[in-house]
Amino acid sequence: MKFSLLWSSILICGLLSWQVGQAAAVDTAAMRASASEGAQWLSHGRTWSEQRHSPLTGINAETVENLGLAWSIDLDNNRGLEATPLYSDGVLYTSLSWSRVLAVDASTGKLLWSFDPQVNKAKGRHACCDAVNRGVALWQGKVYVGTLDGRLIALDAKTGKLVWSEQTTDNRQPYTITAAPRVVKGMVMIGNGGAEFGVRGYFSAYDAETGEMKWRFYTVPADPSLPIEHPELAEAAKTWSEQTDWSFGGGGTAWDSMAYDPELDLLYVGTGNGSPWNREVRSPGGGDNLFLSSILALRPDTGKLVWYYQVNPGDTWDFTATQHMILAELEIAGKERKVLMQAPKNGFFYVLDRETGELLSAEKFGKVTWAERIDMATGRPVEVPGARYETEQVVMWPSPFGAHNWHPMSFNPHTGLVYIPYQEVPGTYSNEGNSFVRREAFNTGSGSSEILELPREYTSGALIAWDPVRQAAAWRVEHPNHWNGGTLSTAGNLVFQGTAAGHFVAYSADAGQPLWRFDAQTGVIAAPMSYEHAGEQYVALMAGWGGAAALFGGDAAVATGVRNISRILVFKLGATAALPQLTEPLASERVPEPVLAAEEDIDNGLQLYSQYCAVCHGAGVIGGGVLPDLRHSSPATRDAYQAILRGGALESLGMPSFAHSLNEAEVNNILLYVRKREYDTHIQALQAAGQ
């Protein structure tokens, strides 16, 4: 179905919600029951254990060939879709880019209500990886969403009307929120992002009913001349250099992963990279820099730390531990263990005892060249010489994109396998020393200007079925592209995954045989979910190309052959709906002219583009199918470069002003470089055609 007036008539749509189901009556009892009952999908990973496994069996390896599209909604959305919808009592709740929320009738796709928090789109320049949102939370009749500008908002689940709103960040600083909130024991847990731009990480607990903050845990210390906020920071401070420049915040932002064990009463939170990335300039002289790149176990009532495991001591590569964590019971060496599993960016698969934090095993699940192994005696990686790039540039695997990024993995307790969206992308690192500081741009201390393009032949992906007991792959499906979608496993011996090339596929969970395929017409990065409504099982998916790799990915992103078409897709057995026929965008017919300008001006434009523009408009000025390709901008757009880049003429569309970062001459140099890239691309195309 086509729905083009998505954000109109909110009041009318709100009244419609009374006709379908009741308010989302989610509480502790409902969450506990959902562990075995599969009809509802009440939290980001279905249950607090975050296994993303559906116990439903109606759609299974024998029947999946009859799976068809039940309904779809075309969305007023042109950025990446990363949310997993939630389902409760006949209603799907989900989020779009710019932190918008909607509720939909789960059987028909009729919009019930929508909510737009009216995020100032200039805030998009502080979003390292697209203006995305990974979903909402439900609790006792309310829907919760974190917004890109740092608010935590509670909505009435029946009407979508605002109940309360709390600003969780200092909006004078480059904080953002893209994560789905989690609700535990009547408290909404939320972290934030922004470490690339220089912030201090923390996560907080808010009363789900009133919005009152209950506690806050800072993930890194602050200026030692200031009072410490909680005792754990006193010990953490000993692992930082006395020469640390705390004006860069330290980083450690908890921007995604959380899980909860109600029996142990432990909340698990993954933390991120340092600010800047490069420890050489972040903490001169070394140090582990707690609690960067760590898994933290805390008491949810108080925020008191019980144990921690640091995945990357003194991280210097943007190897975050914010990737999806899964709680499960595994038999290891003849003994059943309560474990926490994570496949973070660094390429090792970790199995920890979730009660004590003891490392049980860690092995490479993909190509890893920065370290030989994890030392089981110390839990620390054995790094290869030169991996920290203090004196020489290095090219290594993985890259800041990670061997596994935010895309959720899933665990099937019947097969005992974890299904990982793996990607193989090299990274280039060089030490920028103390000359790395730029005005309101990525300040990583790790040179990025060398990354002029990301060629497609250097990148790939795979769906890996990983045996966490044997610490080995049970099977693997290769993908030609990286940045493929998250996974869903089911008791019907199925695992679902969408791909960067626009396919939604079901495989047999035990053997990896492709059993069903659907052309989504756009790249899929989100993870699907499943629910049961009126006795029928459904599979739902947010489809919409975007995120960091789609924006920055250059040639590697173009190789997918897709662009952003934002939709909700819902499937069931026997359904026969179809998507509208895809129309191709008009190709540019302009023949570019050579750029006659001083070489130093074009080179300056290249450096400035790499620092300020590439993160959204693509490495090498090669658009990845989300934002307009700058090589093909109209003459009118190019004439308006000063008004756009410095005057904020397109701020309402998400293109912020860089008036405080770029002067007129620098904007002109960026335009020269963009024009040069257009001309170079044209010449390359002629040469490839033999002309």
Question: For the report, how would you describe the main beta sheet?
Answer: 5 strands, mixed
Question: Average pLDDT value?
Answer: 91
> Please, what is the CATH homologous superfamily of the domain at 599-688?
Cytochrome c-like domain
Question: Which regions are unreliable across 5 or more consecutive residues at pLDDT < 50?
Answer: 1-21
CATH class of the domain at 599-688: Mainly Alpha
Query: In which order are the strands of the major sheet placed?
Result: 1-33-34-35-36
- The CATH topology of the domain at 599-688 is given as Cytochrome Bc1 Complex, Chain D, domain 2
- The N- to C-terminal Cα distance equals 46 Å
Shape descriptor: globular
Structure summary:
The two termini are 46 Å apart.
What key phrases describe this protein's structure?
13% helix; 691 residues; disordered N terminus; Cytochrome Bc1 Complex, Chain D, domain 2; globular; alpha+beta; 29% strand
Overview of this protein structure:
The protein is an alpha+beta fold and 691 residues long. It has a domain at 599-688: Cytochrome c-like domain (Cytochrome Bc1 Complex, Chain D, domain 2, Orthogonal Bundle). It has ten helices and 39 strands. The chain has a five-stranded mixed sheet with strand order 1-33-34-35-36, with no helix packed on it. Strand 28 and strand 29 (417-424) form a beta hairpin. The longest helix has 25 residues, at 664-688. The chain is globular.
